[in-house]
Write the structure tokens for this entry.
Amino acid sequence: MPNIIHYSPEALQDLDDIYDYILIEKQNPIGAQNTVIGIKKSIADLKTLDNIGVRVFLPNGMETPYRFIQYNNYLSFYRSSGKDVYIDRIMYDKRDYINILFGNKR
């Protein structure tokens, strides 16, 4: 039985923001569409492949519940529990993802 993918509201907003940035700022509608489709396809791999991607560690070396998978310059951060896979955020790889994911909690 395949895993079930759940997108957080933030992750869905991230996809919209990525699309809008490439469409408006880069003026590349085909690139915007292809990028979002590629990100979604990479996430769809999580339906059948458990625990792929890179583990996320805090700067102090402490392990977090997150892993990420990459599509081009975009990272999709997820955590899993049984057959449920939660996509929490999707962001450009140069962003400060530790601060975005954990803020002052680290």
Observations:
- The helical segments are 9-25, 29-44, 97-102.
